[in-house]
Known about the structure:
Structural class: alpha+beta
Amino acid sequence: xxxxxxxxxxxxxxxxxxxxxxxxxxxxxxxxxxxxxxxxxxxxxxxxxxxxxxxxxxxxxxxxxxxxxxxxxxxxxxxxxxxxxxxxxxxxxxxxxxxxxxxxxxxxxxxxxxxxxxxxxxxxxxxxxxxxxxxxxxxxxxxxxxxxxxxxxxxxxxxxxxxxxxxxxxxxxxxxxxxxxxxxxxxxxxxxxxxxxxxxxxxxxxxxxxxxxxxxxxxxxxxxxxxxxxxxxxxxxxxxxxxxxxxxxxxxxxxxxxxxxxxxxxxxxxxxxxxxxxxxxxxxxxxxxxxxxxxxxxxxxxxxxxxxxxxxxxxxxxxxxxxxxxxxxxxxxxxxxxxxxxxxxxxxxxxxxxxxxxxxxxxxxxxxxxxxxxxxxxxxxxxxxxxxxxxxxxxxxxxxxxxxxxxxxxxxxxxxxxxxxxxxxxxxxxxxxxxxxxxxxxxxxxxxxxxxxxxxxxxxxxxxxxxxxxxxxxxxxxxxxxxxxxxxxxxxxxxxxxxxxxxxxxxxxxxxxxxxxxxxxxxxxxxxxxxxxxxxxxxxxxxxxxxxxxxxxxxxxxxxxxxxxxxxxxxxxxxxxxxxxxxxxxxxxxxxxxxxxxxxxxxxxxxxxxxxxxxxxxxxxxxxxxxxxxxxxxxxxxxxxxxxxxxxxxxxxxxxxxxxxxxxxxxxxxxxxxxxxxxxxxxxxxxxxxxxxxxxxxxxxxxxxxxxxxxxxxxxxxxxxxxxxxxxxxxxxxxxxxxxxxxxxxxxxxxxxxxxxxxxxxxxxxxxxxxxxxxxxxxxxxxxxxxxxxxxxxxxxxxxxxxxxxxxxxxxxxxxxxxxxxxxxxxxxxxxxxxxxxxxxxxxxxxx
Length: 848
């Protein structure tokens, strides 16, 4: 083929919008046999026959695999800007991190020491849009209802010469970027995770030309200034091969050395790699890279990529703090609307949460910040609490996402908030926590994340992180207050309706010593809510961007605090400040909290001495929670210094405290059901909290008109839902057992069918209703009771790594849903049994 024919072949492949079209184009190119069926012109990916074992072991979700491609494009742009300035990326003159690279290369005139430098948050929209034109993602091909789309990523990165394709784009496990400090992709899998999700043939198109600013006329090969292109495909096992293998089109020189050729090249001044608005492949460029993923599988995200359920929202979650913005284009025919609806700039979830209608979507006093460390690794959590029904706009099942340099590397589901050690069931559908792990050590990153960077690695570091997050979220003051408010909203409106049912259950338990002893219930308290703070006039908190003080609560600055601690227990130290809630985790100019341990060898970072801690800041109160090293002994005296600073402070705020270690505190005993408690005073005041500790569960009937208001929403088959009330989360009751609130579907379809078809004439339906409700409650209590026994047998580690995958709340909902059709018919059948029937059944099989 001549130069123009090769260029046209490249353009035809770029414009092909299905696997079938690619096969057709390649089948008719390259002579009578065509390129598609000529095995001599296909070279092994990575020059390895068993490459499927590596390529097939990447990300397990298509969205996470796609993110790797976008991150590679960001890396390529930073690399280009570095080398175009004559700086070797591995040299000391290169940027030391991603933020410094963004500041130096995309903020000309800005000093890298500025608190705003290298932050997309601080850019105006016009600058974000202009920079985003250097990396684009375009959707072409079929609409959602017809099939999977094609996705095309184009960037103005460094580009590669055609002869370098096998050592760069098409390499496996080569350390191309391992020693470059300002890029993300260092595991060097080449972004191969996407191939598993590219249709049935796993096709990918690659086009690239090296930047003239980098080449600068220095050619190692005559084709270095040309465009190179190839197609990657998956070949099924054949002959003695037991697994598939990936190959790429490399016909140049393949006649002399079969399956060892080079990619095709052509000379052209520019190529239309980039989209404009709804039109793909129209904006010309004289260098860059294009990658097209054919028939890319995107379950749940096939619709218009900019809509609520489209790809944009998913990418925002997986790239919450992008180093560089990316422009997304919807180019599939049939998606109409205004011009502005065809393209938008992807900047990440953090920017959208910060700018996109915070007052309408996020609860007051959020987000809040919480730096923490465990196993010597520093991290920082930003906690978002959404208003009811708003979280689904930003996340799906994710509850806690872990990021490094703005990219999600793994997550824990929202069920984490339903753990008994967290106690936030009422907020499980409203919380999102972003944990920034950028500052952890390289070894820590390897221990916490899989190389695929889409999931957490099971191990000791993960378990310690989970424990620290459990403690942090369980005791976060803002979450506790919001949980109690949500609980009041759900229960208080119908609390009077629930009292007869609870009284009936209480009577049943009193008349059944077996049930009473089994569940160990005492009398129900009059107040269904665990605490009430009275005479405290709530005023909106207005913090300062840069605090003017940070000291022990109720003490003067400079005061040295002496406290007692206990083995196997955490100590909590309260501070007061005038800082805003997100002071420690905001993207621009955040504060730092450093905990130092005073030793004979000087002041050392406490995290390096196996001293885990977290700091929660909410409305002027910061709570430091410390877990002491396992080597601590009774009578040990520990000395600490807490330092808080930011870029505006000439000197840090310094607070010194000492802790003397005592014996382990024995577990609190369960309150004797017969023991009389002294009632709290009736007079309102703001001096103390009063407990309304629940002995019997609070039960709320849920009629059909309230189904949609439940979280999760009820349907006709829902029978019973229980939620952790959070009562045990702040020691409101002496027992450590969790107290659950019960929600019974009074319009369950099986209950309604029974009342309509099986209730005997003249019988009062109220009896059947109460039997159903009581049966559901007892069934739920039995499941919770067994769950507690299981946890006790597991030495209290019911939320640990070996715990059942489903929570007790999920189990109760599923079991009672399955039991609902049989409950009332079974009660009738069992109640109708008499001695004659039993005697007849035992003799029915006797010989005559």
